[in-house]
Write a structure and sequence with these properties.
Low-confidence stretches of chain B: none
CATH architecture of the largest domain in chain C: 3-Layer(aba) Sandwich
Order of helices and strands of chain C: HEHEHEHEHHHEHEHEHEH
CATH class of chain B: Mainly Alpha
Helix content of chain B: over 70%
Number of strands of chain C: 8
Largest interface: B-C, 43 and 43 residues
Mean pLDDT of chain C: 78
Strand order of the largest sheet of chain C: 2-1-3-4
Number of domains of chain C: 2
Distance between the termini of chain C: 82 Å
CATH architecture of chain B: Orthogonal Bundle
Number of strands of chain B: 0
Helix content of chain C: 40-55%
Structural class of chain B: mainly alpha
Radius of gyration of chain C: 23 Å
Shape of chain B: globular
CATH superfamily of the largest domain in chain C: Nitrogenase molybdenum iron protein domain
Structural class of chain C: alpha/beta
Largest sheet of chain B: none
Shape of chain C: globular
Oligomer: heterotrimer
Mean pLDDT of chain B: 85
Chains: A alpha/beta, B mainly alpha, C alpha/beta
Chain lengths: ~260, ~280, ~325
């Protein structure tokens, strides 16, 4: 098993404030990692650091596919997308190919085939010609996953992808994620939902500016870890469920900020 | 006078011909570039850019140079300036644009009011003078317009991605900032070229209205551009004819026609039109 | 869905161009009979109308009350210039819009400058103060002296006869008749002016339009009044300066152009206790004003001037 993602001592500052502090972990190809933490913990910032969208104050990030640098697929938070933009599902997935072409070149047949394959894989082939405004939440997310597949990305970063999605849609995406595992596609999935993290993920990164813990979910979710992540108001009850009270501030720093 | 005669009569005059050709070019150009303006919510910025051109025009006028170059220089300067200012996080982009807008416009008026007979030319600059288009103007308009359209075509896929999802664009390695500046420059060029037709005050309408009408009628961005161009051209030509027969200022006639088209689309567009919505509710309820 | 508006738009554009291509002719062809004549000012238009009678199609560019500084040709005006065969202009720097208009309109008209043969006054310091410095070296208000207009009549009649020899006889006889009316008008003016004591023959105006009138009929144009731009709102400073000048000169009345804001006139009259008399200098009056013709305008002006200056004060 090769490491698909290596994060080493990454620190990120924003407007003079340290929002990520000495983060180190590594993810194997095909693993599913849930990234969990309160608002303002730096989940989105971590993703942006992995994508190279924010400068690293320290440390480095390596995204590898069989030892070579690989493209990273990114689903930003759903609120950031303009759903009324005049594009069809096909158009959106096609955008994934833009990085592969140079300037002044138009999409080739190979590109179009890659798009059809990606749509097929996420089960959205019949919706290729639908404007994205006509798709349901779950369908939209699948289209964006297809876009990442069209990029030939081996690492997918999903930023709170279940926001506003009903349960059947969520389950459809979880099934899709399982199918993608067979292709050695690694997934980082940020969420608030601890129960979800417990059930469907191989690793869990508990984040609150620092990496509080990283490992299999059941090992990570202890009351001690949770209280360090969420402040003193989280309670660990039992084997199957956990209760977290309120939206807790970033530990030890008072005010709640967040670049995301 | 029958309809054909009504249509052909003004075409006896060379100035109408030139106005017609200018309308065709400007209508197309504004709608194509306006597509980006509408989809990225840049209407205010477009309006600001149009007004900010005034000092450039004023200086050119005072120096006895063709107004076009003053407008062009000022337009490019402002485009880059706005791009730059909006990167400062301390001031909201919206406010920064507003301040720049008012300041440049006031500067332009101040400069022009030092000239006694400024009022006529100011009217032309503010509200358009499509009948005053000269052959040189047409050549310049055509050349610049073609250049803008060429850039849009060549950079089509990149601009589409950057417009739809700038974050994604950055992650796949597109030079998002450079493309954003390119877009601003294209908008500035479009405005400079179109000022003569509709003038500064109504410029934003030409950028925004035909494109929005097209938005209601189409599903893909390139379709939006094409239909927008059709609406833009139709509005410009119709406005020209209306101003010929009724002596109404050409710029305002053009804008009123394009707004009428928009209202029609808003009401009757298949699927998105309001009438459609009412009919749907009646059938359901 | 999208194909319909798309095709329609393209079709309309193409249709328009095709029809236009089929039907357009290189230069404007005359639609009706009669010499096509354009006059820039309505005063010129009135004079031309008296001479040309019913034999020409006359278009006047600037209607009553229009100021040449702010005049913008409408599309119809431009079309008329394009179609015209004769264009009568005042000349002497009045029509600053003319050169661009001619270039814009194209066409093959013959331009007739009516200032030829008239002894033009230079634009003095009064002109500069009034802000007309950019206009050239002459005072353009030649029409306020009747002999100048008589000179116009000759020029006009000659131009018309040359362009339309078929009606030369009519033009000449109508010109002669009108000339007689003008002579009568001139005599009447001199008689009226005689009734004003020479020391009271001072014209204080806001716009030095009376150079020719003053020279011809023995007035002094005291134009040192703060200029009020016809296009802009007068500032408080301008109003104050106007009032100071009025008091300093000790005149019974100040004469202004009909285009001046009436509120200004009322305010100044209230403040200084003197009258602000509105005259028609740059344009004929509206219908019903009494100054709808040139002769009417001159009679109206002279009556107002004589009455204001003659009166007890």
């Amino acid at each position: 098993m090769t490491a698909a993602l290596q994060v080493e001592h990454v620190s990120v500052s924003y407007n003079g404030r340290r929002v990520l502090e000495d983060i180190t972990f590594s993810v194997q190809a095909g693993e599913r990692v849930a990234v969990v933490g309160p608002n303002g913990a730096g989940k989105s910032t971590l993703f942006r650091a992995i994508l190279g969208l924010v400068p690293l104050e320290a440390g480095r990030v390596q995204v590898l596919d069989a030892g070579a640098p690989a493209p990273v697929g990114y689903l930003s938070q759903r609120l950031l997308v303009d759903w009324r933009f005049p594009v069809t599902a096909f158009d959106v997935v096609m955008m994934g190919r833009v990085g592969k072409l140079g300037w002044l070149k138009w999409y080739s047949r190979r590109d179009k085939e890659a798009v059809w394959r990606a749509l097929e894989m996420v089960g959205m082939r019949e919706y290729a010609d639908s404007p994205i405004s006509e798709l349901s939440g779950g369908q939209q997310q699948r289209v964006f996953i297809a876009r990442a597949l069209a990029q030939e990305a081996k690492l997918l970063l999903l930023d709170e992808p279940f926001t506003g999605l009903d349960l059947p849609s969520q389950e459809a995406i979880l099934r899709l994620m399982e199918e993608l595992r067979a292709q050695q596609i690694t997934i980082l999935f940020s969420t608030h939902d601890l129960a979800l993290a417990l059930e469907h993920f191989d690793q869990l990164a508990l984040l609150n500016r620092r990496l509080i813990a990283y490992g299999p979910p059941r090992t990570v979710i202890t009351s001690e870890n949770l209280s360090r992540a969420y402040g003193g108001k989280a309670l660990w009850r039992g084997d199957n469920y956990v209760m977290v009270l309120g939206d807790i501030e970033c530990c030890g720093e008072g005010e709640h900020h967040g670049p995301h | 006078m029958d309809l054909i005669e009504l249509f052909l009569a003004p075409l006896r005059y060379p100035f109408m011909w030139r106005g017609l050709i200018a309308s065709l070019m400007v209508g197309t150009l504004c709608a194509v570039v306006g597509t980006y303006v509408v989809l990225r919510g840049m209407a205010f910025l477009g309006d600001a850019l149009a007004h900010a051109i005034l000092p450039g025009v004023a200086v050119a006028y005072l120096l006895g140079q063709p107004l076009f170059w003053g407008a062009l220089l000022m337009g490019l300067l402002t485009a880059v300036g706005i791009g730059f200012v909006s990167r400062r996080a301390e001031i909201k982009e919206d406010t920064a644009i507003g301040i720049l807008f008012a300041a440049s416009f006031a500067l332009g008026i101040a400069l022009l009011s030092t000239v006694q007979s400024y009022s006529v030319d100011l009217t032309h600059i503010l509200f358009g003078n499509i009948l005053g288009v000269s052959d040189q103007d047409l050549v310049l308009t055509g050349a610049l317009g073609l250049f803008v359209l060429l850039v849009v075509v060549l950079l089509y896929k990149e601009l589409l991605v950057v417009t739809f999802d700038p974050l994604f664009a950055t992650t796949v390695g597109l030079p998002t900032t450079a493309l954003h500046y390119t877009l601003l420059v294209l908008i500035a060029l479009t405005i400079v070229v179109s000022i003569q037709t509709v003038g500064v005050a109504l410029m934003v309408a030409m950028l925004v209205t035909p494109a929005t009408t097209a938005y209601l009628l189409t599903r893909k961005m390139w379709q939006m551009m094409l239909v927008g161009a059709g609406c833009g051209v139709f509005s410009a030509v119709a406005g020209l004819y209306i101003s010929f027969y009724t002596n109404v200022a050409s710029g305002s006639a053009v804008v009123l026609v394009s707004t009428a088209l928009f209202l029609l689309a808003m009401l009757f567009a298949p699927r998105r039109g309001m009438v459609w919505g009412w009919a749907g509710r009646r059938r359901a309820g | 869905m999208t194909r319909i508006p798309l095709r329609l738009a393209v079709l309309m554009a193409l249709l328009g161009l095709v029809l236009a291509g089929c039907g357009a002719s290189p230069a404007g062809q005359p639609l009706n009979a009669g010499l096509r004549v354009v006059a820039t000012t309505n005063i010129i238009g009135d004079v031309v109308a008296h001479i040309a009678g019913g034999y020409v199609q006359l278009t006047v560019l600037m209607g009553p009350g229009v100021d040449p500084h702010t005049y913008t040709p409408t599309p119809r005006d431009v079309a008329a210039v394009h179609d015209a065969q004769l264009i009568f202009v005042n000349g002497a720097g009045l029509e600053t819009f003319l050169a661009p208009l001619l270039q814009q309109a194209g066409g093959q008209a013959r331009l007739v400058d009516l200032s030829q043969g008239i002894d033009l006054l230079p634009a003095g310091h009064a002109e500069e103060e009034a802000g007309h410095a950019g206009e050239g070296e002459y005072d353009p208000h030649v029409w306020l002296s009747v002999p100048n207009v008589m000179r116009w009549v000759d020029t006009i009649a000659e131009a018309l006869s040359e362009a339309d020899p078929a009606h030369a006889g009519e033009y000449r006889s109508q010109a002669a008749a009108y000339r007689q009316e003008l002579e009568a008008l001139d005599a009447w003016i001199r008689q009226q002016v005689a009734g004003v004591p020479p020391d009271r023959r001072k014209l204080v105006t806001n716009h030095p339009a009376f150079g020719y009138f003053a020279r011809e009929y023995g007035f002094e144009q005291v134009g040192a009044v703060y200029p009020i731009s016809p296009a802009a709102e007068p500032s408080a400073q301008e109003i104050a300066a106007l009032e100071d000048t009025i008091r300093r000169l000790g005149v019974p009345a100040v004469f202004t152009e009909s285009t001046v804001n009436p509120k200004l006139a009322e305010q100044v009259a209230r403040d200084t206790g003197i009258r602000l008399v509105r005259l028609y200098t740059g344009s004929l009056g509206e219908a019903g004003s009494g100054a709808e013709t040139y002769i009417g305008m001159m009679r109206y002006n002279v009556r107002a001037i004589v009455e204001a200056l003659k009166g007890s004060e």
